[in-house]
């Protein structure tokens, strides 16, 4: 089990900053994102690469609720990935909204950040679920969200069914199914979209 201390620089990392890297012998090493990027830049011979670090940004959604987004940038050889995600206090997992953009390794990280923040803002203006008499309902006829591993399922069943995150909130698969019953007899279309694309 990879630990929370970076094997390269010794930094004790917050869980979302841990990158598990497979070694040749099949073992995993834990690296912080900075050390991961340094190694990747070396391997990809990107000598001018500088690891960008961004402070969290607070953005309000359509209901005026403020969400705090943390950022992580990872260099994947020919692409620079920038992620924005929410963290809940005391939780190891990233919960809530999560967004990703891919850019060229040589691209200006601040330009990438600007584009990602615009993407986050666009997503935050849309509400797909509404609360009605204490129950969540589908607001319109389109639902956008993210498919997640559901560790809350009974042992043995874990991972068999997804949990979805809609409007930044977790919805169990059965609850999502119950919401869809408002549309009994309707047709549906499911389109799966890469995390870095716009849903
Ligand atoms: Zn490190």
TrEMBL record:
Domain of life: Bacteria
Signal peptide as annotated in the record: none
Residue intervals of the DUF7686 domain: 50-124
Ranges where the DUF7685 domain occurs: 5-46
A Pfam family of this chain: DUF7685
Domain DUF7713 stretches: 129-197
Protein name, entry field: Uncharacterized protein
């Amino acid at each position: 089990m990879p630990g929370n201390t970076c094997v390269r620089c010794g930094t004790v990392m917050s869980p979302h900053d841990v990158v598990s890297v497979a070694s040749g012998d099949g073992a995993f090493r834990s690296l912080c994102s900075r050390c991961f990027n340094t190694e990747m830049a070396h391997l990809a011979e990107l000598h001018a690469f500088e690891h960008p670090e961004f402070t969290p940004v607070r953005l309000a959604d359509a209901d005026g609720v403020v969400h705090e987004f943390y950022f992580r940038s990872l260099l994947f050889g020919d692409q620079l990935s920038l992620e924005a995600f929410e963290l809940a206090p005391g939780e190891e997992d990233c919960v809530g909204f999560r967004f990703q953009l891919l850019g060229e390794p040589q691209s200006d990280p601040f330009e990438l950040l600007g584009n990602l923040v615009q993407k986050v803002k666009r997503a935050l203006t849309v509400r797909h679920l509404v609360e009605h008499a204490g129950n969540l309902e589908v607001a319109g006829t389109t639902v956008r969200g993210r498919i997640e591993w559901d560790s809350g399922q009974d042992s043995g069943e874990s991972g068999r069914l997804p949990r979805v995150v809609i409007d930044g909130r977790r919805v169990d698969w059965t609850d999502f199914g119950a919401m869809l019953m408002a549309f009994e007899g309707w047709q549906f279309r499911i389109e799966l979209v890469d995390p870095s694309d716009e849903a």
